[in-house]
Each structure stands twice: as C-alpha cells, then as structure tokens.
Specification:
The complex is a heterodimer of chains A (98) and B (199). With 98 residues, chain A is an alpha+beta fold. In chain A, 52% of the residues lie in helices and 19% in strands. Chain A has helices at residues 16-26, 33-40, 44-56, 79-97, and strands at residues 30-32, 60-67, 70-77. With 199 residues, chain B is mainly α. Chain B is built from seven helices and one strand. Chain B has helices spanning 3-22, 28-50, 55-78, 86-111, 120-139, 142-161, 167-198, and one strand spanning 83-84.
Chain lengths: 98, 199
C-alpha cells in the first residue's frame, strides 16, 4: 500500500474502459462506435454509457451524419480530453515512481 | 489505486494507443490494381512498339489508366472507414496526388512532345519512388523506404538506357516493386483484421 492521494485522480478516468476509449481516440482523427467497441471489447450498452459520460464532461465530441443514407456517429477526443488523459498518465507515473 | 494497478493501467494505455495507431486502411488493394494494370500496359506497349505499331500505344495506356481511375474512384466512394488517422490521410493524398501527376505527365507530357516517349518510364519511376518514400514515413515501415529507393535506382538506370529497351525493365520493376509490395500490404492488413476480430 502507498500513501497515494486518490483525490488526485480524475473521477471520469477511474474506469478502465473510459481510459481505453480515450487512449484509442488520442492517436486517431475520429472513430465510429464499432471501431471503439472492437478496440475496448465492451458490450453496446456498456460502451454507450461510458461514451455518454465522456461526452458529458467534454472529453469527447460526437458528430452525427448520414453516409450513403445510413446514420454514422463519429467520436473525437477534445483538447480538454487530451489534457485530462496526459494529466492522468502523469499521475500514474508519479505513483509508479514512489 | 496501488502501484501494480498504475503499472497495469499505463500498460493498457500504451497497448490501446499502439493498436489504434496501427490501424490503416487497406492500401494494398489499390497498389495491386495499379501494378497489374501498369505492368500489363508496359509489356503490351513493348510488344506493340517492337512490332512497329506505335499508334496503338496511346490506346493501350488510355485503357489501362482509365480503368485504374474508374475502379479506384469507385472503391474510394464505397470506402466507409471505421476510424481515420493522420497516417491514412497522408498516404491517401500522397498516392492520389502522384496518380494525377503521373497521368498528366504520361498523357499531356508525351502527346504535347514536351517529354520524349522513352523518358516517360524513368520519370514515372521517380514519382512512384516518391510515393513509396512518403508512404514509408507516414506508416513508419522501414522496408517501404527500400522499395522507394529501388524505384529511384531503376529510374537512374532507365535515364541512361534512353530507349524503349528499358520498357521490360520498367515492367519487371512494376511487378517486383509494386504488385509484390501491394500483396505484402494486403497480407499485413489481413493479419491486423484477423487479430482484432479474434481478440
């Protein structure tokens, strides 16, 4: 056990799935639901709820459009989300170095 | 959270970033298509020229390049990427730009007389080498830069041959350094697809 202060960690990024979603989006321009589902290995319902939470805090943005008359939803990491992920990684690294 | 959990989470972040970065669309399919069409046109041109029928050469190329563009545009319209990254955009734009440049040089350059017919093979080889070099930097694959270098060396050689005799060499290069790398790209893409489906 360490004397690590849990309060330093971002509440939104306490979930591994949400961290994985952010990590997947950080190196991409954008990605659709199926790509993220495949990448983080989550069920549709589970992934939807995590994506909603990330969208609510402004870490990702959602773009809905029609491609060949079919609806397409694309997810993109925001600047705020990018900074939050970097900060999260910094805190984890500090914890490892303790 | 303890240190072990932090180590695991950092490892997870690295793994997911690496996997999503690996994502590229299948460029192999287009490279194979153009390699096959170009090599067929090159060998057909050589056969026609050696038979003394120069008039047919233009039509061989109009058919090959026209077919290539029609199929490529059709595939491009139908493509619905699950995710887009900068590497994919760079590769896509590099090959489209080179394709347009080669079409202009091949047709306008030769029919206007600005470029001598024999010179078109080394000129196109130089451009193809540039496409492979650009692709190598975008997807960070070392072997692809060697393919680009092979095209540039072939171009140097053909510039000094200065005749139609260079056409068979151009055709062989098209198979070895275009069709074969195309199959390697396609095979690597298949492996990535299977890996992500079985995970």
């Amino acid at each position: 056990m360490t004397d690590f202060d849990y309060k330093q960690l971002d509440d939104t990024l306490q979930s591994r799935i949400r961290v994985a979603i952010m990590a997947a989006l950080v190196s991409l321009e954008d990605a659709d639901f199926n790509f993220l589902k495949n990448m983080v290995k989550a069920t549709d319902g589970n992934l939807s709820s995590h994506l909603r939470k990330l969208e609510d805090v402004g870490y990702i943005s959602v773009n809905k459009s029609f491609v060949n008359r079919k609806p397409q939803t694309k997810y993109k990491i925001t600047e705020k989300g990018r900074r939050a992920l970097v900060e999260h990684v910094n805190i984890l690294e500090k914890l490892i170095k303790k | 959270m303890d240190q072990q959990s932090a180590i695991e989470e950092i490892a997870l972040i690295k793994k997911v970033i690496e996997e999503s970065r690996e994502f590229t669309f299948n460029i192999g399919k287009n490279i194979i298509l153009w390699g096959v069409l170009m090599s067929a046109a090159i060998f057909a041109s050589f056969k026609t020229i050696t038979a003394g029928d120069h008039g047919m050469v233009l039509w061989i190329w109009v058919t090959a390049i026209g077919t290539g563009w029609i199929i490529s545009v059709f595939w491009g319209i139908r493509r619905k990427p699950n995710a887009e990254n900068l590497g994919v955009k760079i590769i896509s734009n590099v090959w489209t730009s080179c394709g347009i440049a080669m079409t202009i040089l091949g047709f306008a350059g030769v029919t206007s007389g600005a470029i001598q017919e024999w010179a078109i093979s080394p000129v196109l080889s130089t451009l193809i080498g540039t496409c492979f070099a650009g692709t190598a930097f975008a997807i960070k694959l070392r072997w692809v830069i060697y393919v680009g270098v092979a095209w540039w060396l072939g171009a140097l050689l053909m510039f000094f041959v200065k005749s139609y005799e260079a056409l068979p060499l151009f055709g062989i290069m098209m198979i070895l350094f275009m069709v074969v790398p195309g199959f390697v790209f396609h095979w690597q893409w298949k492996i990535r697809q299977n890996k992500s489906e079985t995970k």
